[in-house]
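User: Study the shape:
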Amino acid sequence: MTTADTGTHTMATQRAPQTDADRAAAANARRRTVALRQRLAAQLFFELALPLGSYYGLRAVGLDQWLAMAVGGVLLLPWIIYGIVRQRRVEAMAVFTLSLVVIGTVLTLITGSPRVLMIRDSWVTAAIGFWVLGTLLTRRPFIMTASRGIVIAKVGEVGLVEWEARWDTEPMFRHHLRLVTAVWGAVFLLDAVLRVVLAYTIPVDAFPLTSTVLWLVMLGGLLTWHNWYLTRHGMKL
Protein backbone atom coordinates (compact mmCIF):
# COMPACT_ATOMS: atom_id res chain seq x y z
CA MET A 1 0.00 0.00 0.00
CA THR A 2 1.43 3.40 -0.95
CA THR A 3 1.62 6.44 1.28
CA ALA A 4 -1.21 8.02 -0.68
CA ASP A 5 -3.32 4.90 -0.23
CA THR A 6 -2.57 4.89 3.49
CA GLY A 7 -3.60 8.55 3.78
CA THR A 8 -6.81 7.93 1.88
CA HIS A 9 -7.61 4.91 4.05
CA THR A 10 -6.94 6.92 7.22
CA MET A 11 -9.16 9.79 6.09
CA ALA A 12 -11.97 7.39 5.17
CA THR A 13 -11.67 5.72 8.56
CA GLN A 14 -11.85 9.10 10.30
CA ARG A 15 -14.90 10.14 8.28
CA ALA A 16 -16.88 6.95 8.91
CA PRO A 17 -17.89 7.69 12.50
CA GLN A 18 -19.02 11.18 11.49
CA THR A 19 -21.09 9.75 8.65
CA ASP A 20 -22.71 7.25 10.99
CA ALA A 21 -23.49 10.04 13.42
CA ASP A 22 -25.03 12.09 10.64
CA ARG A 23 -27.19 9.16 9.60
CA ALA A 24 -28.31 8.59 13.18
CA ALA A 25 -29.14 12.28 13.58
CA ALA A 26 -31.10 12.29 10.31
CA ALA A 27 -33.01 9.17 11.34
CA ASN A 28 -33.76 10.71 14.73
CA ALA A 29 -34.98 13.90 13.07
CA ARG A 30 -37.27 11.87 10.79
CA ARG A 31 -38.68 10.00 13.80
CA ARG A 32 -39.36 13.29 15.59
CA THR A 33 -41.06 14.68 12.49
CA VAL A 34 -43.27 11.61 12.16
CA ALA A 35 -44.10 11.73 15.88
CA LEU A 36 -44.94 15.44 15.57
CA ARG A 37 -47.27 14.85 12.64
CA GLN A 38 -48.96 11.95 14.41
CA ARG A 39 -49.51 13.94 17.60
CA LEU A 40 -50.82 16.99 15.74
CA ALA A 41 -53.11 14.79 13.67
CA ALA A 42 -54.43 13.14 16.83
CA GLN A 43 -55.03 16.52 18.46
CA LEU A 44 -56.84 17.87 15.40
CA PHE A 45 -59.01 14.77 15.19
CA PHE A 46 -59.88 14.19 18.85
CA GLU A 47 -59.94 17.80 20.03
CA LEU A 48 -61.51 19.52 17.04
CA ALA A 49 -62.80 17.41 14.14
CA LEU A 50 -64.52 14.68 16.15
CA PRO A 51 -66.47 16.80 18.68
CA LEU A 52 -67.36 19.65 16.33
CA GLY A 53 -67.97 17.37 13.37
CA SER A 54 -70.28 15.15 15.39
CA TYR A 55 -72.14 18.15 16.76
CA TYR A 56 -72.86 19.74 13.39
CA GLY A 57 -73.41 16.35 11.75
CA LEU A 58 -76.03 15.41 14.33
CA ARG A 59 -77.67 18.82 14.00
CA ALA A 60 -77.81 18.35 10.22
CA VAL A 61 -79.83 15.15 10.62
CA GLY A 62 -82.25 16.88 12.96
CA LEU A 63 -80.99 15.95 16.42
CA ASP A 64 -81.86 18.31 19.26
CA GLN A 65 -79.26 21.03 19.97
CA TRP A 66 -78.63 20.05 23.55
CA LEU A 67 -78.40 16.33 22.78
CA ALA A 68 -75.96 17.00 19.94
CA MET A 69 -73.87 19.11 22.32
CA ALA A 70 -73.92 16.32 24.93
CA VAL A 71 -72.70 13.79 22.37
CA GLY A 72 -69.83 16.08 21.40
CA GLY A 73 -68.87 16.46 25.05
CA VAL A 74 -69.00 12.69 25.63
CA LEU A 75 -66.70 12.11 22.64
CA LEU A 76 -64.20 14.51 24.16
CA LEU A 77 -64.10 12.84 27.57
CA PRO A 78 -61.92 9.80 26.62
CA TRP A 79 -59.28 12.11 25.15
CA ILE A 80 -59.33 14.35 28.22
CA ILE A 81 -59.02 11.28 30.49
CA TYR A 82 -56.17 9.98 28.34
CA GLY A 83 -54.33 13.27 28.80
CA ILE A 84 -54.81 13.10 32.57
CA VAL A 85 -53.66 9.47 32.85
CA ARG A 86 -50.88 9.46 30.23
CA GLN A 87 -49.63 13.03 30.34
CA ARG A 88 -50.78 13.87 33.89
CA ARG A 89 -52.43 17.04 32.67
CA VAL A 90 -55.73 18.29 31.30
CA GLU A 91 -55.78 18.75 27.53
CA ALA A 92 -56.50 22.47 27.49
CA MET A 93 -57.44 22.57 23.82
CA ALA A 94 -59.96 19.76 24.28
CA VAL A 95 -61.61 21.60 27.17
CA PHE A 96 -61.56 24.79 25.10
CA THR A 97 -63.21 23.03 22.16
CA LEU A 98 -65.89 21.75 24.51
CA SER A 99 -66.51 25.30 25.70
CA LEU A 100 -66.90 26.44 22.06
CA VAL A 101 -69.52 23.74 21.50
CA VAL A 102 -71.42 25.04 24.51
CA ILE A 103 -71.12 28.67 23.35
CA GLY A 104 -72.19 27.74 19.83
CA THR A 105 -75.24 25.91 21.14
CA VAL A 106 -76.30 28.86 23.26
CA LEU A 107 -75.86 31.23 20.33
CA THR A 108 -78.04 29.08 18.08
CA LEU A 109 -80.95 30.13 20.29
CA ILE A 110 -80.55 33.73 19.09
CA THR A 111 -83.18 34.66 16.54
CA GLY A 112 -83.69 37.82 14.54
CA SER A 113 -82.78 39.34 11.20
CA PRO A 114 -80.35 37.59 8.82
CA ARG A 115 -77.67 40.12 9.70
CA VAL A 116 -78.03 39.37 13.41
CA LEU A 117 -77.60 35.67 12.66
CA MET A 118 -74.53 36.39 10.53
CA ILE A 119 -72.62 37.87 13.45
CA ARG A 120 -72.93 34.73 15.59
CA ASP A 121 -69.44 33.64 14.49
CA SER A 122 -68.15 36.97 15.75
CA TRP A 123 -69.23 36.03 19.26
CA VAL A 124 -67.28 32.78 18.97
CA THR A 125 -64.08 34.39 17.64
CA ALA A 126 -64.41 37.16 20.24
CA ALA A 127 -64.72 34.50 22.96
CA ILE A 128 -61.58 32.83 21.62
CA GLY A 129 -59.72 36.15 21.60
CA PHE A 130 -60.69 37.02 25.16
CA TRP A 131 -59.82 33.49 26.30
CA VAL A 132 -56.37 33.69 24.69
CA LEU A 133 -55.71 37.12 26.20
CA GLY A 134 -56.97 35.87 29.56
CA THR A 135 -54.25 33.24 29.63
CA LEU A 136 -51.72 36.09 29.89
CA LEU A 137 -52.77 36.36 33.53
CA THR A 138 -51.88 32.72 34.19
CA ARG A 139 -48.58 30.93 34.55
CA ARG A 140 -49.02 29.24 31.20
CA PRO A 141 -50.08 31.61 28.38
CA PHE A 142 -51.91 30.18 25.39
CA ILE A 143 -48.89 29.74 23.12
CA MET A 144 -46.93 27.86 25.78
CA THR A 145 -49.77 25.40 26.29
CA ALA A 146 -50.52 25.04 22.58
CA SER A 147 -46.85 24.37 21.80
CA ARG A 148 -46.45 21.42 24.17
CA GLY A 149 -47.28 18.82 21.52
CA ILE A 150 -44.77 20.28 19.08
CA VAL A 151 -42.04 20.49 21.73
CA ILE A 152 -42.60 16.88 22.85
CA ALA A 153 -42.47 15.62 19.27
CA LYS A 154 -39.23 17.48 18.55
CA VAL A 155 -37.22 17.08 21.76
CA GLY A 156 -39.15 14.53 23.82
CA GLU A 157 -40.49 14.64 27.36
CA VAL A 158 -37.09 15.53 28.84
CA GLY A 159 -36.71 18.36 26.36
CA LEU A 160 -40.19 19.59 27.25
CA VAL A 161 -39.22 19.82 30.93
CA GLU A 162 -36.12 21.84 30.01
CA TRP A 163 -38.13 24.04 27.63
CA GLU A 164 -40.79 24.81 30.26
CA ALA A 165 -38.08 25.46 32.87
CA ARG A 166 -36.94 28.41 30.78
CA TRP A 167 -40.13 30.20 31.87
CA ASP A 168 -38.74 30.45 35.42
CA THR A 169 -35.19 31.39 34.47
CA GLU A 170 -35.35 33.52 31.29
CA PRO A 171 -37.28 36.83 31.36
CA MET A 172 -36.98 37.20 27.56
CA PHE A 173 -38.48 33.75 27.08
CA ARG A 174 -41.52 34.85 29.08
CA HIS A 175 -41.66 38.14 27.16
CA HIS A 176 -41.66 36.46 23.75
CA LEU A 177 -44.34 33.92 24.69
CA ARG A 178 -46.55 36.60 26.18
CA LEU A 179 -46.15 38.82 23.13
CA VAL A 180 -46.99 36.03 20.69
CA THR A 181 -50.01 35.08 22.81
CA ALA A 182 -51.17 38.71 22.86
CA VAL A 183 -50.93 38.93 19.07
CA TRP A 184 -52.96 35.73 18.64
CA GLY A 185 -55.67 37.05 20.95
CA ALA A 186 -55.70 40.45 19.22
CA VAL A 187 -56.10 38.86 15.78
CA PHE A 188 -59.12 36.84 16.94
CA LEU A 189 -60.72 39.99 18.38
CA LEU A 190 -59.97 41.92 15.19
CA ASP A 191 -61.59 39.16 13.15
CA ALA A 192 -64.71 39.41 15.34
CA VAL A 193 -64.93 43.19 14.85
CA LEU A 194 -64.41 42.98 11.09
CA ARG A 195 -67.11 40.29 10.78
CA VAL A 196 -69.62 42.60 12.49
CA VAL A 197 -68.65 45.45 10.16
CA LEU A 198 -69.04 43.20 7.11
CA ALA A 199 -72.39 41.86 8.34
CA TYR A 200 -73.87 45.36 8.31
CA THR A 201 -72.12 46.84 5.26
CA ILE A 202 -72.16 44.23 2.46
CA PRO A 203 -75.00 42.29 0.80
CA VAL A 204 -76.23 39.30 2.82
CA ASP A 205 -75.49 36.86 0.00
CA ALA A 206 -71.87 38.04 -0.19
CA PHE A 207 -71.16 37.60 3.51
CA PRO A 208 -70.36 33.85 3.73
CA LEU A 209 -67.66 33.95 1.03
CA THR A 210 -66.26 37.30 2.15
CA SER A 211 -66.01 36.31 5.80
CA THR A 212 -64.32 33.01 4.88
CA VAL A 213 -61.73 34.74 2.70
CA LEU A 214 -61.16 37.30 5.47
CA TRP A 215 -60.44 34.57 8.02
CA LEU A 216 -58.10 32.65 5.69
CA VAL A 217 -56.11 35.81 4.94
CA MET A 218 -55.85 36.76 8.61
CA LEU A 219 -54.93 33.24 9.69
CA GLY A 220 -52.31 32.94 6.95
CA GLY A 221 -50.79 36.26 7.95
CA LEU A 222 -50.82 35.32 11.62
CA LEU A 223 -49.08 31.98 11.04
CA THR A 224 -46.48 33.62 8.79
CA TRP A 225 -45.72 36.27 11.40
CA HIS A 226 -45.69 33.64 14.17
CA ASN A 227 -43.07 31.56 12.36
CA TRP A 228 -40.97 34.61 11.47
CA TYR A 229 -41.01 35.98 15.01
CA LEU A 230 -40.03 32.70 16.69
CA THR A 231 -37.25 32.14 14.16
CA ARG A 232 -35.91 35.69 14.49
CA HIS A 233 -35.68 35.46 18.28
CA GLY A 234 -34.28 31.93 18.44
CA MET A 235 -37.46 30.45 19.90
CA LYS A 236 -38.09 27.89 17.20
CA LEU A 237 -36.96 24.37 18.05
User: Anything to note?
Assistant: The longest helix spans residues 3-60.
